[in-house]
Design goal:
Four Helix Bundle (Hemerythrin (Met), subunit A); 7 helices
Length: 211
């Protein structure tokens, strides 16, 4: 198969756009949905899950598929033989694991790792893995447009790309931390749900599993 530079550039742009939007826009928005909504309703889990799976998921999967496609266009470059490709594979696997862990952690109850917060180990792991994905995603995108793009496409990205990345890497952490201002309200709501469970309210048991 002959190499088509125009096709490679086209597919590389699609991959970069999909993967960037999926990992550093849509997934962080899903994190914020969970962080804020849980302070106002015990039924926050489904909006969070639907967003991360049905909205972010197809974009991330398509971005990864295009990564495989452009790697196959230049077989000599290999599939997962440099930091960007290895990190991309790791992020994709971490995302799939996070989906599975999210389902498990919100559908089961277990021993409380932090008794005062009433959090099970699997839920703590779900939060930590989400934060790890967040950090690695922003590193991956920056490495992609500063190193990978210049190396394989041959032209620098517009300055607006870095400005957008910088804005997102500041805005999302700030919004996430600010969300903890509602932690007392969230804990109060969860305590109320636990009290209802103690009194034998079956509907509240479902709400508690989502807390």
């Amino acid at each position: 198969m002959s190499f088509d530079a125009n096709s490679y550039d086209h597919d590389a742009r699609i991959h970069a756009t999909l993967s960037s939007v999926g990992f550093i826009v849509l997934l962080p928005v899903g994190m914020l949905i969970a962080r804020y909504a849980r302070a106002f309703t015990p039924r926050w889990f489904w909006p969070h899950a639907v967003w991360q799976f049905l909205i972010a998921g197809p974009v991330i999967i398509a971005g990864f598929a295009y990564a495989v496609i452009i790697a196959k266009q230049v077989p000599a470059l290999g599939q997962f033989n440099d930091p960007h490709k290895k990190a991309g594979l790791a992020l994709f696997i971490m995302y799939l694991c996070q989906l599975f862990l999210g389902i498990v952690s919100h559908s089961t109850r277990g021993p409380r790792l932090f008794f005062f917060l009433h959090r099970s180990p699997q839920r703590v792991l779900h939060i930590l893995l989400g934060l790890a994905i967040f950090g690695l995603s922003f590193w991956q995108v920056r490495y992609g447009y500063t190193v990978q793009w210049v190396t394989y496409v041959g032209t620098p990205v517009p300055p607006s790309v870095h400005k957008a990345w910088l804005a997102l890497v500041i805005i999302f952490p700030v919004l996430y931390v600010l969300g903890y201002a509602f932690l007392p309200k969230q804990l109060s709501q969860e305590a109320a749900s636990r009290n209802k469970v103690t009194n034998g309210n079956g509907d509240s048991m479902k709400e508690l599993n989502q807390a």
